[in-house]
Specification:
about 325 residues, alpha/beta, about 40% helix
Length: about 325
Amino acid sequence: MSPSSGLRPHRVVVLALDGLLPFELGIPHRIFGRPKDSEGRHLYEVVTCSVRSPGPVETDADFAVQVAHGPEALATADTVIVPASYELGPVFEEGVLTDELAAALALVRPGTRLASICTGVYVLAAAGVLDGRPATTHWADAARLQRLFPGVRVDPDVLFIDDGDVLTSAGVAAGIDLCLHMVRRDHGTAVANEVARRTVVPPHRDGGQAQYIERPVPDPQLSGTTAARAWALGHLHEPIQLRDMAAQEAMSVRTFTRRFREEVGVSPGQWLTRQRVERARHLLESTGLSVDQVARDAGFGTAQSMRQHLQAALGVTPTAYRRTFRTESGAVRT
C-alpha cells in the first residue's frame, strides 16, 4: 500500500494487547515518528489502541501502559501493526481469535496494510489473512506457528517478509528491520537511512535468523569474513569473483564460503547482489546518473542486468524506481 497522498500523513495504528512487550510496542513510534517532508510535516501519524475502551494495558514487565484509543482507531488506519504479546490465550493455544479481538479486527478497512512483530503474527494467522501466504516469526516459535496454522507458508530463516499488503517479522529487533523496510518502501532509501542513523541502528542487516539460533561456539582462533566484506563494498563497481573475496582472508574458496554463510546467513553471491541493489537504489534516488552509469557504478555491468536484479528484488524497473523515489536535494528530511 502506498503512503497517504496529499497533506494527510499515513496513519499507523498499533494494536496493544495484554502481555505486550514494551520494547516492541515502542518500535513503530520510534521509526514512523521521525520522517518529515521538506516543510517539516510528519509523513506518518502513529497512534496506539487496545481492543477495549481507553485505559491501561498490561505488559510483560512490572508496569502497565495507558492507551488513549479504543478499537475504533483501527477503522482509521492506513497500516495496522500488531506487536508481540505473551498473553494471547486461545490465539496462541488454539489458533482462534477471542470475541473481543475478532470484533476489533473487523473494524479494519479492506486494503489496509497489516504487519506483525514476532508473535503478533499469531493474530494475523488466526484472523485468516495469512492463509496460503508466506510469513515469519521468532525462530523459537516458527515450528509451533506452522503446526497451528498449516495453511501458512512459514519461513523461520528470515528477519521479515514483505508480501505486499501483509508483512511479518521475526522477534524483537527484527521489528526495527521491518518498520525501516516499510519506510524505505514508502519513501525511499534516503529517508529510511536517515531514520536509521538517528535511531543508531543499521539501515539494513545482512542475513536472516539463522545467524541468531544457538549453536556451538566457533573456534576463537578461526578468522572471520569481515575484511572481505569491507573490501567488496569498496570494489562494488568492479567484477568480483568468489576467489577474490576468499583471498582477502587467505582462505580457500570452500572454507570462505562456509564461514561466510555461518556469519552472515546467506551465500557470498547473495550478499554481493544485495549490496549492489542497495548501491543502485541510492544512486537512482540521489544522482542524475544515467541508468547505464548507475549499472556500471553498482557493479551490474549492464542496464539489462541491473533491471533484472531490481525487478527480482523490488518488483520494479530502475526507471520506475527513480520516478517514484528521486527527490531534489533536501526535498525530504527527517
